[in-house]
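On clarity, I found the account of how folds are encoded harder to follow than it need be. For illustration, here is how one protein appears when written out as sequence plus structure tokens:

:::
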Amino acid sequence: MKTFLKIYVLTFVFFSYPFFLPAQSTIPIETKDNALVLQVNAQNNLCFIYYGKKLSNGTEYEQINKEYHQSDYTGLLNSAYTPAGSRNLLEPAISVTHFDGNKSLDLKYVSQEIQTIGDNVKLFTITLKDPVYDFTVRLNYKAYYKENVIEQWSVIRHNEKGDVVLDKCASANLYLRANSYWLRQFHGDWAKEMQPEETMITHGIKTLDTKLGTRPNLFQPPVFMISFNKPATEEEGSVLFCSVEWSGNFRADLELDYQNNLRIIAGINDYASAYVLKAKQDFTTPCFLTVFSDKGKGQASLNLHRWARNYKLVDGNGNRLTLLNNWEATYFDFNEAILKGLFKDARKLGVDLFLLDDGWFANKYPRNDDRAGLGDWQENKTKLPAGIASLIEEATNDSIKFGIWLEPEMVNPKSELYENHPDWVIKQPQRDEYYFRNQLVLDLTNPKVQDFVYAIVDNLLTKNPRLAYIKWDCNAVIYNAYTPTQKNQSNFYIDYVKGLYSVLERIRNKYPILPIMLCSGGGGRLDYGALQYFTEYWPSDNTDPYERIFIQWENSYFYPAIASCNHVTDWGKQPMKFKVDVAMQGKMGFDIVVGKLNEKDFLFCRQAIAEYNTIKQTIWHGDLFRLADPYSRKVASLMYADVSKNTAVMFNYLIDNRYGSSSALPIKLKGLDPRKTYKVTEINLYPGTKSSLQADKTYSGDFLMNIGINPEVRAGRASVVLKIEAV
């Protein structure tokens, strides 16, 4: 939404018109294949009546509700934005306390406005108003036609005689109808991100939420899927992908009501966050993203990837840098000479960039471990006497770019920043401090702290204009939430995220396409609210390639390959080829001690990077097709195909290591042209090995998609990469 205000208003020509609807009027919000349909009833209530496949005759939408013979004691059961305190009996989307202490709210339809943005996007804004209080809600639905994606959010405003408290204010209030509903949700912890669970939704409320303040996705990511009538597969079934675009405390309530209809109410978590809103000020909720598919999870995922590359990611249709990171090679123990030696290793490997990780800063309390120095962002004079500029110069001489690690939102108690500005730290003034990774969180509700965090990045880039990459980390959660800058502490959690976004907005205004990795001790802050400011993300600190197959598989439903940073490390006991083949499913990097590689491993890594450079555009910008599920098959398989259907890359991995496990059956490909002929070549072969597949064998697209090909995965040949080219 901020992107819309900042970019679209300047870029596209709007065609806008407000209008009023007569009673019993229907508002279809359509994309290429789907429709979200609202209706104004005779009592001027805005109702949610349909979300699914688009009807060919749009006039028939108004008949949908009449086919459901269900009793409603309130008239609000299918409300498009359910208010609390009047006659609603179920979970509300919004509850408020008016200036006079009254907690009742009723919202009636007033008007609608449609804005056409370019040739692919429409924004529907529907205004609702309380007939008693001067209190207004504007519901916004942004429809991306080709991608079948809909974002929705609400803007709340009042003109009452005093402050109004927003006890709860959701971004979205969906009302879905089916015989049954299946929830695929995710949970995790550090190094165990995106663990899936799928269950049938039962009556009552299922809540997905987080209360961590920052690094909020540590235990519960803000993405989930709802399948209708039965669990959707890759190619079959109706499914709705959902995501809260918010980098703080979020909440999604899934309420199966007494009529067997599913209500989804999602947005900011109201935990400790009754927000005080002054008169004549807007409160804008974060976006809630949905994409519906009646052709299974694969189609929903494909549409979401295209949307993310086109509209959300920074430089989503651009390029990315392969890199060598020093973290697992040196940890905190390095100096200029060691780093400059690693530059030469990076050049030998053939990567684009060297990334200097944690430990390069602080002098009074040197950053020699994770217990000190965080917050003191000056070069450590012992380790780097000539400073960052000298390292960039040396890297440039070695024909590679230079990047650096930052954790600008955090502070160690053992630091000059903490000594000089204890009031900048989030902590309760009369309670013992409690640390997460030996650190505390800076108070981004404070404008002075926002300026400080922005200046960390800006000063580095101003002094070092050739600095080519930033890894932005965030390792702590918020304990003892409190800020001295606010009289009302219930605004804190929301204003913290607003402060973070304000800083990131300023950075992006000045450095619009600088590559920045979103890292949070792994995937602890992975959401599209944050990703609109970043080029890529770090899925997990767990880089064991076997575990990464599963983590990357689940993340791939919601986030495109160009955004996923996959590094080859010492984690895991698999051979180097297996590690590299897994890392190729996204933006590949290395975090290894190059000098300790044996001759064949080093040669293979060099060859693999060169090979990767020939296929990375297909991986980054192509369509992803999951071919064999790692949870139910002995082999995991997926492929990326470019939109022209001329080139594809297929990755295959042995999942089951029991005796005799192999790809016994052919694997059917997807996304090809049945009329074209394709050459299939095995690539990324380890030195001294030969492919067991017939070299440059050709097949019709029809054969590959209906019969398939056997990549001959087995013990001793645990990962196989195939390149498919039209001839």
In short: The longest strand covers residues 164-177. The radius of gyration is 27 Å.
